[in-house]
Each structure stands twice: as structure tokens, then as C-alpha cells.
């Protein structure tokens, strides 16, 4: 193998925001024909680094060399012109336009100033065939799955003859066969000499495809490693620092509790959704809900929380039958929910962290008895400290926090009213492993303090780690209930698959 | 490079300024609307040297400034209500029509019955609240788009007012009621006092309780608000009822002012002035933070502008056009992006000349 050539090199790059050093002397070397994983928890500086690299943000200091020349791009467009393309987590294409139009937007083949539609479609077809995608390029993009859209976004990047391709969490919304499809394309591009920066939370995938790994932590580079030489345990250590890893181990030990039943679902059904669901959650017990997306996990949570009204059956809570018409009724009874869709159902984006924390308590106090601002500040300060919410200022809008920190704020919101039952719908979705471990540990300690939990998660190991029993759902119905020795990830998987 | 960075930083700061109440940067929100108002007043002074002169006659202050405040009163009341509706992401097109209904109800009660003043006022306000509740039910419980729901009452409401008046202009002779529109107290016209009172009461109600925060939370994210225990429907119902109450008060001032009720013209198009005032005050129509003070400043800007146009002696046919242009200018001045662009033009030009 010949020595690969250095395509892009960042030296001592710093980026400061008011009050925050987002990047501190970060180096990054990118060779032609490699897949380079850029890893770190949320807030480690991955996104900032990518933005600096691609001209979306201006660096505060440091040098960027592209093909050996010192340069810095004034805008993403300039970077793209030079050959650095970025595909973001959320597909940045136009759903109403056709696939071909999306692929060539702004670069349409023209003659006499007019777009040559025929030629554009042919070129689009050819381009996508390179990705083993044989689809109708004249159909609107929205018709295709997210995976296909993601591939189209990548194809668009490649179409503009990319030398460097940055993929920011490209697999977050893909299933495993789609991931393999994407990886095939990445391998193909690698052979053609494209340097690929791959950002992901999934460590398995890192090892499947990456040649080299750069780890960031708190805005600094921890190290650059060859993927083959870096055992998984050391990678996690590099990403988290040592203390946190011990936390995960702690979280993994379970102490099953047996006590009075707190929540009893008696054959509940919701019109057009779940039916015949019965389950019990005991005092201080954590119960897991497992199942595929669309199996009814979220629907059960919504029913218990009063978002959807029951058409059948009853919910008993603390010995009393609940008639839930809206979430406020559930909260009054002592039930709280961290919703799956954090952005649309959890956070109130423009409001401050302080307000987001105090609102549930305020809602329970009623509108008339306003919590004095001083008490609000104390409350916020207390939970920011207790849950290690990374923010310089409680008055910052919550939408500026990372996903993990937003989730902590939502947890703080509920801890502030100390519910008897906390429902956590995918509490660690889209959260980096650092916050992941912390949140798992927190859930665990809540349970030990006597709070009952109902938790859904698609990460089965996570469920097994702290749940006393796991209820498996499929097609809006309960399939089985596993506990004790039978409650292992393979067993659950089997139950999900065949019942 | 440096410049783009400082742009990003100032953008960040602008966001913070917009969203963090209580921080020093909040004052930035007040800067441009206030500056626009001051500028307009200054222009008035140039056009008319006696603009700031006040005189005291018969126990009452007179002068252009008092005039502007007095004339602003109905729209200011509407704008206070409208601020809350817009904060929830809604809009209320019916407030002008509600003014007409409330005026008609009061005028007919005054003409046909001997009810004491307090009861007549109570009836007028109750009418406004009822109208607002209808809007609120349509929007929050029947989930009709606010612009459509309130458009219904905007059209139907004026019809109701005409029916109440039986197609006539109803006039009455009741000095006690007329005092609401034409009287004065401690040297100031009563409408000004009503606005001050309503403003202070609203401010207490909204900011000394959690109501204001709940309204903002619902406006920012209604689903998340419901999920954390806020009754978002009740909040929406409240803001429309509140807007109806404000509109009724404004309608009574108008009726008292002319000592009669003209269903065709009372409050006509004033809902648009109120919406405009709230927008000039920097509110976002999709909902979120609100400031009653900024909305009232917006009203004063609109009213000063009308006065300026009259004082300037331009032919009346120019009024509407000039008004629109100045409002556009005020809105542009409030935009960070526009101001940056403007300052970069101003900075670049002399440099270009050197080259």
C-alpha cells in the first residue's frame, strides 16, 4: 500500500463562543481513501469542528490545510466548491422536488440557459446506479424512505466531485440493512480515494467501517487512533474519561424490589390502537416495555399518561381507579412522562432552562400562586448541579442545549414535583454515551429511592440492566412478560420476533 | 472572517436578548420601538414648534401629546388583548366588531332603560367576554384556525350590532356614560386613565401570577405545555375572552365619545391597527414571548404617525400610503439583519470611494 496523501489537515484549531471554548487546539488529519470516525459525546465539539472545517463557522485561531494549501472557507458553498461536501443528520433536501432535481439543484445541466431535463434525469439515473439505487428519479423525493433520501443526499455530495465527504450521524434513522447499503457505498467511495469523515453514536458501526478514529472530549482532541489498534473499552474510556465508565458498571447491577402494586392496567384498550394490555408496576419497581417501533410501546405510555383516552379497561393507581382525560389528571395523581419526541412534546424551546424546570411544579400549584423568581432560581440551580446539566446560565433558552442536557432538564422538571410513577419513553434516544450513562444511573437511583418507573427502550441491554421485569409488545398487544432469569436480551429479542 | 464571526456572535446575542427576560440585554428589545417613537415625535416638533406645549384649562390638560394619547386609547386597549392572543400563536380579527356590539348594547340600554351606569358597563363588558368566549371555544375546543374562527365573528359581529341597533344610529343622552369618553380626572382625559388602569391590572394579572408564563409556554409549544400539566385549551379560551373584554371596553369608550352607537363604523378596521401595533412591538405571529409595554408603544407609534401626517399639511390622499411606508421602515429597523446590512452599506460606501 502506498502512503496515502494528506487531503485535509487541521492544526491547533480553536473556536470560542462568548463564555464557551467549543474547540481548543484541535488537530485532525484526513487522508485520501480512508473512513475517519470522529467520536465524542454530545458537546464534545464534533459538530463545531465539522462546521469550522466546512466554512459554516469561522475559526477563532489555528490553520486549515486543504491539499497542502493553507486556506479557510468563507462559507459551506465555498467548501463545497473546493470539494468538501457535508451530509447532515436531518436530510437537507427538498421533499417536493424530484430526485433528479434534488441531485442537481444549482448545478443543472443547461443549454442556452435552459435546464435540460432529459439529460439531468439520465445523469441522475447513472449516478444513483453507482449506489445500486435503481429508482424513478422523476418522482418526488418525499416518496422514498429516509434511508434512500440519505443515500441521495450523499450522492448529491459525490456528484459535486467531493474529495472530502462529511457524514454527520448518517445512520441515526436507518435500519440495519439500510446501514449496510450505506456502508457499501462508503467502501466504494473509499476505494475511489474519497476521504470520509464519519460521525456516529454507534460504536459497532465505527468498528465495521472506520480505518482511523479521532476522539474529542470537552472541545479538545483526546487522541488519534488506528481503529484496528483500539479496543472498544479503551475507546469508551477515551470518550468518557474514566470516572463515567465506572458509573455505567454501577448502573449495570440490579436489585429487584418486591412491593405493593402501584399501577395496575386492567385489559386497557385505546380506539384504533392498543388493546387488551394488562400489566402491574409495583412500588419502587422499574418495568420495561419492549417491542419494535410501532408495537404499541409509546401508545401504552400515552394511555397511562392520559394523552389518549381509554376505550376499554381501567387504570388503577395506588388502589384508586383513574379516569384520565388529559395529562394534567395523570400528573395530579402522581404520574409523570418524559416523552419520546423530546423536541415537540418535551422541551419548550424558546423558554429558559429555569422556566422549563419549574413549569411542571408551577402547573401543579396552579396559575394563581406564582413561584417566586428567587425560588425558581434556587430550584434550577439545585437541579443543574445535581444532574450535571452543562450550561453556564439557567436563563439560557433550552433549545441551545445538547440533546442529553435537554433530557436532563426534562427529568429535573419531573423530579421537582416528585411523582410516584415516572414513565420514560426512550429516555436515552439520540443521547451520547456520556449523558446516557448518567441518565441510566439517575433512573436507577430514583428507583432505589422508591419511585416506580415504566420505561420503554429499543436498547434491550439497557432495559435488562435495571428493569425488574420486561413486558413485550407486538402489534399493539402484549405478547409476554419476562422476569428473573428469562429476562435476557436474547429472550426478549425472541419474544419480539415470534411471541 | 472576523466580521462573519462577530455577526454570528451578535446573532447569538440577539437571540438571547429576545428570549431572556430579566437580563440586561432585554432592554435591546425596547430600544428600536422607543427610538422610532422618539423620532416621530421629533419630526412632529420640527413641523410644529408648539407640538410639545401643554395647556391647562377647565381642570384638564390640552395639547398634541395628550391628544395622541387620548386618541390611541381604543387601539391601545385592543392591542393589550391582542398581545396575549398573538402570544399563543393565534389572532383575533373580531375585536373591531366586538367594539361595535358592546357599543350597541350599551347605547340601547341607555336609551331604552333606566339602568344605573354600573350595570350598563357590566352588560357591555359581559357582551365582550361572551364574544371572546365564542372565539375561544371555536379555536381551542373545535380546533378551527384562529384567523377563520375570528373572521366569522368579524363579519357576523357587525351584523349583530346592526340588528341590535335595528339599522339605525342609536344616540343617547347620558352624561355619566359619556364621561367615559369625554370626561377627565386629575387633569387627564378618562380614556387615558382607562388604558393606564387596564395596563396595570393586566400586568399584575399576567406577571405576578404564572398566567403570563403559561401563555408564553402554550405559544411556544402547546403540546409540550399540555404534557407538563398546563391546560392549554383553557389558556387559549382565556386569551380570547380577555381580548373580548378589552374590545368591549374600547367599544364603550368610542360610544361614549360620540354619545351614540354607529354599528357600521364603530371600531372599523381597528383590529388591523391593533395587530400592527403588536407586530411593531416586536411580537412574533407564531407565538411566544409577549410584552404589553412594547405593544402599547406600537400603538403610540401608529397614532403619532397619523398626527404627523395631519400636522405636516400633506393632502389627505397621501395619508394611507405614507402610513404604510413608515410602518415598513419601523419594522425594518427592528430587524437585526436589516440593520447590519444597512450599516455595512454605510461603511462600505466611503471605502469604495477611496478605491
CATH architecture of chain B: Orthogonal Bundle
Q: Output the CATH class name of chain B.
A: Mainly Alpha
Structural class of chain B: mainly alpha
Using the 3D structure, state the CATH architecture of the largest domain in chain A.
Answer: 3-Layer(aba) Sandwich
Keywords:
heterodimer; A: 499 residues; alpha/beta; Rossmann fold; 2 domains; six-stranded mixed β-sheet; 18 helices; 22 strands; 37% helix; B: 355 residues; mainly alpha; ABC transporter involved in vitamin B12 uptake, BtuC; two-stranded antiparallel ribbon; 15 helices
Describe what this molecule looks like in 3D.
Chain A: It is found in: Cell membrane. Chain A: InterPro entries: AAA+_ATPase, ABC_carbohydrate_import_ATPase, ABC_transporter-like_ATP-bd, ABC_transporter-like_CS, P-loop_NTPase. The complex is a heterodimer of chains A (499) and B (355). Chain A has 499 residues and is an alpha/beta fold. Chain A has 2 domains: 237 residues, 3-Layer(aba) Sandwich (Rossmann fold), CATH 3.40.50; 249 residues, 3-Layer(aba) Sandwich (Rossmann fold), CATH 3.40.50.300. Chain A has 18 helices and 22 strands. In chain A, the strands form 5 sheets. Chain A has a 6-stranded mixed sheet with strand order 6-9-10-3-11-12, with helices on both faces. In chain A, strands 18-19-20-15-21-22 form a 6-stranded mixed sheet, sandwiched between helices. The longest helix of chain A is centred in the middle third of the chain and has 16 residues. The radius of gyration of chain A is 25 Å and the shape is globular. By secondary structure, chain B is mainly α. Chain B has a single domain, classed as ABC transporter involved in vitamin B12 uptake, BtuC, CATH 1.10.3470. In chain B, the strands form 3 sheets. A two-stranded antiparallel ribbon of chain B has the order 1-2. In chain B, strands 3-6 form a two-stranded antiparallel ribbon. In chain B, strands 4-5 form a two-stranded antiparallel ribbon. The longest helix of chain B is centred in the last third of the chain and has 27 residues. Chain B starts with a helix and ends with a helix. At the A-B interface, helix 11, helix 12 and helix 13 of A face helix 1, helix 9 and helix 10 of B.
Amino acid at each position: 500500500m502506498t502512503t496515502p496523501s494528506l487531503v485535509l489537515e487541521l492544526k491547533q484549531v480553536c473556536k470560542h463562543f462568548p463564555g464557551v471554548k467549543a474547540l481548543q487546539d484541535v488537530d485532525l488529519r484526513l487522508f485520501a481513501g480512508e473512513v475517519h470516525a470522529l467520536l465524542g459525546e454530545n458537546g464534545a465539539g464534533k459538530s463545531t469542528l465539522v462546521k469550522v472545517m466546512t466554512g459554516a463557522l469561522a475559526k477563532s485561531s489555528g490553520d486549515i490545510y486543504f491539499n497542502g494549501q493553507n486556506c479557510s472557507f468563507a462559507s459551506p458553498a465555498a467548501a463545497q466548491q473546493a470539494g468538501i461536501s457535508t451530509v447532515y443528520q436531518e436530510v437537507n433536501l427538498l421533499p417536493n422536488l424530484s430526485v433528479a432535481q434534488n441531485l442537481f439543484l444549482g448545478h443543472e445541466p443547461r443549454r442556452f440557459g435552459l435546464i435540460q431535463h432529459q439529460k439531468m434525469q439520465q445523469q441522475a439515473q447513472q449516478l444513483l446506479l453507482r449506489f445500486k439505487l435503481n429508482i424513478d428519479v422523476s418522482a418526488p423525493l418525499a416518496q422514498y424512505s429516509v434511508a434512500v433520501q440519505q443515500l441521495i443526499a450523499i450522492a448529491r455530495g459525490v456528484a459535486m466531485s467531493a474529495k472530502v465527504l462529511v457524514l454527520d450521524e448518517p445512520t441515526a434513522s436507518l435500519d440495519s440493512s439500510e446501514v449496510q447499503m450505506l456502508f457499501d457505498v462508503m467502501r466504494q467511495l473509499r476505494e475511489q480515494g474519497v476521504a470520509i469523515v464519519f460521525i456516529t453514536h454507534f460504536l459497532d458501526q465505527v468498528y465495521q467501517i472506520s480505518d482511523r478514529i479521532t476522539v474529542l472530549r470537552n472541545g479538545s482532541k483526546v487522541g488519534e487512533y488506528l481503529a484496528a489498534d483500539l479496543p472498544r473499552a479503551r475507546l469508551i474510556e477515551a470518550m468518557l474519561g474514566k470516572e463515567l465508565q465506572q458509573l455505567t458498571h454501577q448502573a449495570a447491577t440490579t436489585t429487584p424490589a418486591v412491593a405493593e402494586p402501584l399501577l395496575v392496567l386492567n385489559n386497557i384498550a385505546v380506539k384504533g390502537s392498543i388493546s387488551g394490555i394488562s400489566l402491574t408496576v409495583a412500588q419502587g419497581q422499574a418495568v420495561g416495555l419492549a417491542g419494535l417501533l410501532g408495537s404499541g410501546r409509546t401508545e401504552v405510555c400515552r394511555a397511562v399518561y392520559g394523552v389518549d383516552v381509554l376505550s376499554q379497561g381501567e387504570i388503577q393507581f395506588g388502589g384508586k381507579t383513574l379516569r384520565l382525560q388529559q395529562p394534567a389528571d395523570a400528573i395530579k395523581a402522581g404520574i409523570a412522562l418524559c416523552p419520546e419526541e423530546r423536541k415537540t412534546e418535551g422541551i419548550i424551546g424558546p423558554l429558559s432552562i429555569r422556566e422549563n424546570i419549574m413549569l411542571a411544579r408551577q402547573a401543579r400549584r396552579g396559575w394563581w400562586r406564582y413561584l417566586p423568581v428567587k425560588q425558581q432560581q434556587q430550584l434550577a440551580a439545585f437541579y443543574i448541579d445535581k444532574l450535571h446539566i452543562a450550561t453556564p446560565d439557567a436563563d439560557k433558552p433550552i433549545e441551545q442545549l445538547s440533546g442529553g442536557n435537554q433530557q436532563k432538564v426534562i427529568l429535573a422538571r419531573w423530579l421537582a414535583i416528585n411523582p410516584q410513577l415516572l414513565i420514560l419513553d426512550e429516555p436515552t434516544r439520540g443521547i451520547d454515551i456520556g449523558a446516557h450513562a448518567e441518565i441510566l444511573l439517575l433512573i436507577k437511583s430514583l428507583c432505589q429511592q422508591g419511585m416506580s418507573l415504566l420505561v420503554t427502550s429499543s436498547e434491550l441491554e439497557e432495559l435488562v440492566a435495571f428493569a425488574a421485569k420486561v413486558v413485550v409488545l407486538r402489534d399493539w398487544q402484549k405478547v409476554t412478560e419476562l422476569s428473573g432469569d428469562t429476562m435476557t436480551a436474547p429472550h426478549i429479542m425472541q419474544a419480539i420476533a415470534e411471541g | 472572517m472576523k466580521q462573519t464571526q462577530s455577526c454570528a456572535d451578535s446573532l447569538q446575542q440577539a437571540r438571547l436578548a429576545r428570549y431572556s427576560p430579566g437580563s440586561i440585554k432585554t432592554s435591546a428589545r425596547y430600544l428600536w420601538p422607543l427610538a422610532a417613537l422618539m423620532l416621530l415625535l421629533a419630526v412632529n416638533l420640527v413641523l410644529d414648534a408648539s407640538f410639545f406645549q401643554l395647556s391647562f384649562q377647565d381642570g384638564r390638560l390640552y395639547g398634541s401629546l395628550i391628544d395622541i394619547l387620548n386618541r390611541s386609547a381604543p387601539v391601545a386597549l385592543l392591542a393589550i388583548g391582542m398581545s396575549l392572543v398573538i402570544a399563543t400563536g393565534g389572532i383575533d380579527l373580531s375585536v373591531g366588531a366586538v367594539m361595535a356590539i358592546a357599543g350597541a348594547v350599551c347605547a340601547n340600554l341607555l336609551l331604552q332603560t333606566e339602568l344605573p351606569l354600573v350595570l350598563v358597563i357590566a352588560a357591555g363588558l359581559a357582551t365582550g367576554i361572551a364574544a371572546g368566549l365564542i372565539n375561544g371555544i371555536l379555536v381551542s375546543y373545535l380546533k378551527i384556525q384562529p384567523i377563520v374562527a375570528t373572521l366569522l365573528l368579524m363579519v357576523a359581529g357587525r351584523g349583530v350590532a346592526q340588528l341590535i341597533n335595528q339599522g339605525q344610529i342609536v344616540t343617547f343622552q347620558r352624561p355619566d356614560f359619556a364621561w367615559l369618553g369625554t370626561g377627565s380626572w386629575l387633569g387627564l382625559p378618562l380614556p387615558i386613565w382607562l388604558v393606564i388602569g387596564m395596563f396595570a391590572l393586566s400586568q399584575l394579572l399576567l406577571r405576578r401570577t404564572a398566567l403570563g408564563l403559561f401563555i408564553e409556554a402554550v405559544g411556544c409549544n402547546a403540546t409540550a405545555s399540555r404534557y407538563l400539566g398546563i391546560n392549554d385549551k383553557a389558556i387559549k379560551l382565556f386569551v380570547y375572552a380577555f381580548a373580548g373584554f378589552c374590545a368591549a371596553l374600547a367599544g364603550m369608550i368610542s360610544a361614549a365619545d360620540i354619545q351614540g352607537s354607529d354599528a357600521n363604523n364603530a371600531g372599523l378596521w381597528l383590529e388591523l391597527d391593533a395587530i400592527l401595533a403588536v407586530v411593531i412591538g416586536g411580537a412574533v405571529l407564531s407565538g411566544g414571548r409577549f410584552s404589553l409595554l412594547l405593544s402599547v408603544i406600537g400603538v403610540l407609534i401608529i397614532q403619532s404617525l397619523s398626527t404627523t401626517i395631519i400636522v405636516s399639511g400633506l393632502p389627505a390622499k397621501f395619508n394611507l400610503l405614507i402610513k404604510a411606508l413608515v410602518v415598513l421602515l419601523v419594522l425594518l429597523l427592528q430587524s437585526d439583519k436589516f440593520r447590519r446590512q444597512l450599516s455595512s452599506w454605510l461603511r462600505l460606501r466611503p471605502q469604495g470611494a477611496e478605491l
